[in-house]
Amino acid sequence: MSERLVELRNVAKSYGRVFAVGGVNLHVDRGEVVGLLGDNGAGKSTLIKMLAGAIQPTSGDILVRGKVETHWDAARSRNAGIETVFQDRALAVQQSIVRNIFMGREISNWFGFIDSTRERREAERLMREIGFTSKVFSPDSIVGQLSGGERQGVALARAIYNQADLIVMDEPTTALSLTETEKVFRFVRTVRAGGRSVLFIGHNIHHVYDIAERFVVMDRGTVALQATKQEVGSAEQLIAFMENIAHPQGVVSFDPASTQAGASS
Ligand SMILES: Nc1ncnc2c1ncn2[C@@H]1O[C@H](COP(=O)(O)OP(=O)(O)OP(=O)(O)O)[C@@H](O)[C@H]1O
Ligand SMILES: [Mg+2]
Fold first, then answer.
1. What residues does the ion ligand 2 have nearby, CB within 5 Å?
2. Which residues line ligand 1 (CB under 6 A)?
3. For 16, what's the count of Cα atoms within 13 Å in the CB-facing half-sphere?
């Protein structure tokens, strides 16, 4: 039996009369990687901001481990074990890996000072846990000297330290090369193997297809498709589905009658 970690029920967010998200149902179970897809402006970021408690839904319910949350906000979202990793932002590039992991949640000793020895040991354990295999890096390495994929790894290590059960990654591979993307995928797989869940947002359908086992496709604020990898079939079929949303038949087809009607008016 899969355990339902997070669920959105009929969640909507409007800005004035514009619905950024309208009546979305979505869930993430424990230990699964869900790919969230959709064109620009489909509502993906709005959705994850609601999950993160950064913005409030206009209507609908957020459930964590089967219970409806009330007074949902950023602190409650974190306490519920939801962490969002954004491309590049979030990290202090001039600082070491260890500083970045413990920023804001330092381990202190009896005297209230930062316990660097314990932090370093814990950072090493976390780096191993998410699959940092390179001997070149130590917890004292400066994040600015890491590659893009490795930086995502540091952000994941921090999320794990914060005891995240669900890690939301907003476009983590958009600016990355193929090898860097593969690094991120390796990290995501290790995170998943540890029983955590990942909601992976991306533009590159091939990337999302590779890493996720279930897909949610958004279109203009609503969910257009929810399907497992098995149901979807191939990446090509997922692409075909998304192209059909972007250019539904009838809109792109040429209709001489309507053109003439348009010309005469
Ligand atoms: N603060 C806001 N005020 C008004 N409209 C907003 C606001 N935030 C988002 N929107 C609108 O809501 C819709 C969804 O935006 P959102 O950023 O969630 O899309 P997205 O799927 O993340 O797109 P992208 O792939 O470009 O990141 C867009 O039409 C956007 O203009
Ligand atoms: Mg977005």
1. 45
2. 15, 18, 20, 38, 40-46
3. 1
* 50 CA to centre of own chain: 12
Radius of gyration of the chain (CA): 21
From the alpha carbon of 203, which atom of ligand 1 is closest? 25
Which tokens in the block code for residue 201?
A: 């947002």
Which ligand is located closest to the Cα atom of residue 43?
Answer: 1
Distance (angstroms) between ligand 1 centre and the Cα of 43 equals 6
What pLDDT is recorded for position 148? 85
In the chain, which stretches have pLDDT less than 50?
250-265
Nearest atom in ligand 1 to 218's CA: 21
User: Which pair of tokens denotes residue 254?
Assistant: 């040429």
Do 10 and 23 meet the contact criterion of CB atoms below 8 Å apart? yes
pLDDT tens track for 88-147: 567 899 999 999 999 888 888 888 888 889 999 999 999 888 888 777 788 999 999 988
**Nearest atom (ligand 1) to Cα of 38:** 21
CATH topology of domain 4-264: Rossmann fold (3.40.50)
Domain chopping of the chain, boundaries: 4-264
Alpha carbons 76 and 82: distance in angstroms, whole number: 9
